[in-house]
Amino acid sequence: MQVAIDGPASAGKSTVAKIIAKKLSFLYIDTGAMYRACTVIARNHGLDYGDESGILKAIGQDGIELKSENGEQKVYSAGKDISVEIRTPEISANVSQVSALPKVREKMTTLQRQMAGKTDVIMDGRDIGTTVLPDAEVKIFLVASARSRAERRLLDLKQRGIKSDQTVDQIEKDIAARDYKDSHRKVSPLKKADDAIEVDTTSMTIDQVVDRILSEIKKSKKIEENSTK
């Protein structure tokens, strides 16, 4: 079974996807982390964030690997755990440019589809329901106000031990700018799939969002069971 969760930055996609994957024993794939890893690789190689051929070559050299360790997804590149590094403000500010590169998206999409083809999967990102897994049985599109997402981002940075001098207002401005970039890029823009269920998480707790998505997954399973009888 394939479950696609899309939405803008800090709408809660990764948080709820991890919980649901654990509850259902599904494989969890954080596609945003993969693009962030590409951005870290570009920076580590001293490349311009628009240097598509250079970044592709560097990705080929360093590689990107997702590992599950103690129930947490870890991101490795060049044999190093970069799970914290990919969440730093510098990477957040530049990932939109890297993720908009057509051949980088093509490479990551291929990897994502290969991972999803092996088992039950829950995948989150910005183009999962529209591009990566267009035939997913359940598609969710999470939204939330820019302010609430900025507050979540600041809290997340603190919990991860990442130092940042940014205020909530600055983060809100950055998030709004990223929303625009993600939704206006030429290749696989951030867009709600026609058959996706929109969930506004602004005033919802994590548990409420999880329960809502789980109910949609259970509905889908019942439909599948009935159709095979």
TrEMBL record:
**One GO cellular component term:** cytosol
Which key words are in the record? ATP-binding, Cytoplasm, Kinase, Nucleotide-binding, Transferase
GO-annotated molecular function? ATP binding; CMP kinase activity; dCMP kinase activity
Reaction(s) catalysed (UniProt annotation):
CMP + ATP = CDP + ADP; dCMP + ATP = dCDP + ADP
**Positions of the Cytidylate kinase domain:** 3-218
EC number(s) per entry: 2.7.4.25
- What residues bind ATP, as annotated? G7, P8, A9, S10, A11, G12, K13, S14, T15
Q: Which InterPro entries match?
A: Cytidylate_kin, Cytidylate_kinase_dom, P-loop_NTPase
Q: Name one GO biological process term.
A: nucleobase-containing small molecule interconversion
Q: Which Pfam families match?
A: Cytidylate_kin
Instruction: Output the superkingdom of the source species.
Output: Bacteria
The record's subcellular location field reads: Cytoplasm
Which segments does the entry list as coiled coil?
none
Q: Which HAMAP family does the entry mention?
A: Cytidyl_kinase_type1 (MF_00238)
**Cited PANTHER family:** CYTIDYLATE KINASE, CYTIDYLATE KINASE/PANTOATE-BETA-ALANINE LIGASE
**Can you tell me which family this protein belongs to?**
Belongs to the cytidylate kinase family. Type 1 subfamily.
**Protein name according to UniProt:** Cytidylate kinase
Instruction: State the organism of origin.
Output: Lactobacillus amylolyticus DSM 11664
Gene giving rise to this polypeptide = cmk
